[in-house]
Amino acid sequence: MNSPAPSIGQFIKQHLREYGMLLSLVLIVAFFQYATDGTLLQPLNLTNLVLQNSYIIVMALGMLLVIVTGHIDLSVGSVCGFVGALAAVLLVEYEWPVVPATLACLAAGAVIGAVQGWFIAWFKVPSFIVTLAGMLVFKGLALTLLQGQSVGPFPDSFQLLASGFIPDPLQGEELRLTSLLVGVGAAGLLLVTGWLGRRHAIKHEMAVEPGLVFALRQAAFAAALIGLAWLMASYKGMPTVLIIMTVLAIAYDFVTSRTTLGRRIYALGGNEKAARLSGIRTERLTFLTFVNMGVLAALAGLIFAARLNTATPKAGLGFELDVIAACFIGGASASGGVGKVMGAVIGAFVMGVMNNGMSILGIGIDYQQVIKGCVLLAAVFIDVYNRRRG
Q1: CB 62 within 8 A of CB 296
Q2: 239 dihedral zone (left: phi>0; alpha: psi -120 to 50; beta)
Q3: DSSP output for 171-211
Q4: Residue 141: Cβ within 10 Å count
Q5: Over the stretch 225-276, which tens digit does the pLDDT of each residue have?
Q6: 231-254 in b/e burial notation, b at 16+ Cβ within 10 A?
Q7: Alpha helices in 282-340 (DSSP H)
Q8: Separation of CA 97 from chain center
Q9: How far is it, in rounded angstroms, from Cα 12 to Cα 14?
Q10: Chain centroid to CA 108: how far?
Q11: Using an 8 Å Cβ cutoff, are 157 and 97 in contact?
Q12: First-residue to last-residue Cα distance in the chain
């Protein structure tokens, strides 16, 4: 006999944090859209919003796994800046081809993550200390590589990583039809996969959300995707980096929610001792989590450098704070074992929309930092409060 879906009230109460953050993002977008007289969602500003937050979202995917395992990584901003500096040296000074230089930078990120993960996993040095040391080390190495000066510009093919747009073979006159069709196709795929996933869950007598909530959520996401595609198609189309972000988010969401590896990561964060006794190689899993973080920090460094078209000694400064804040605002727990990929993405966009909207309104950077700090504290407070009530 199929397991009945809970009532709408029960479901919303059980998933208050998840749906609350999504609703918060919608309300924040609506507020700034009104406050800026429609500037926020203009195609040009919407494209800039995606480009400005792309590297934060990429790093948030890796940071979420680190936080879920019960650790933290304070070095991601410095690693991001160091890899951008390394790319500048290889591409500009040594004139390496783009592909080998990119692969070398990603490999450097993996090595950095492996070294830090090695100390954390097998020597049990607290991740806070290891990555704090890493933050200082790689900030210094970036200064050494660049010799205190900015290096650029990059080759045009490398800049496409952050400033390119998907081509439009259909050549629409007023709309980039290819981008619009990609958005419509993504919305259709979302509807189909959501429906199939719900059928599969019902078939195996798993708990599912109420039908009305499911239908409204799917329709809202599909409409948002099509609307986003329409707006971007009216400018230059979808940025290449948006496609990269989307593919990564879908891949990480699948790994964390549908694979054995994902379940082991959450088990490690929930109770490391129990996970070890159940046969999970906790040291190796922690090590791989930091290797993954290093690769994503390197990718973010390449995207950021490509967007600026230069590598600067101050690149990556403070990025770790935005990345960690995005994960916590998106529902990750400071005690580990809790957090979702889409929550981290939503958290990153909450931070991004707030930054962009406050900048349009002319709010100073000082007050922006105060407001962002209060939002982060409120998100963590709600998490702690809910855990104590549970």
Answers
A1: yes
A2: beta
A3: --SSS-HHHHHHHHHHHHHHHHHHHHHHHHHHHTT-----H
A4: 17
A5: 899 999 999 988 899 999 999 999 999 999 998 899 999 999 999 999 999 9
A6: bbbbbbbbbbbbbbbbebbeebbe
A7: 282-308, 319-329
A8: 28
A9: 5
A10: 21
A11: no
A12: 30
Q: Record the tokens describing residue 157, joined without a space.
A: 């093919």
pTM beyond 0.85: yes
What is the per-residue pLDDT across 175-218, written as a single tens digit (0 to 9) for each? Answer: 888 999 999 998 998 889 888 888 888 888 777 777 787 888 88
Quick one: tokens of 251?
A: 């891949």
CA distances to 100, 141, 162, 304, 385 from 88, in Å: 13, 13, 15, 12, 46
Find all residues with CB under 8 Å of 131, minimum gap 6, and list them.
Answer: 72, 73, 74, 75, 116
CA triple 85-90-92, angle to 5 deg: 85
Sign of CA dihedral 163, 166, 168, 172: negative
Instruction: Report how far Cα 70 is from the mean position of its chain's Cα atoms.
Output: 18
Cis upstream peptide for 153 (omega within 30°): yes
199: exposed, middle or buried (C-beta count within 10 Å: 0-12, 13-18, 19+)?
A: exposed
- The residues, ordered by sequence, that sit 6+ positions from 266 with a Cβ below 8 Å of its Cβ are 68, 256, 337, 338
| Crossing angle of helices 43-68 and 240-258, rounded to 10° | 30
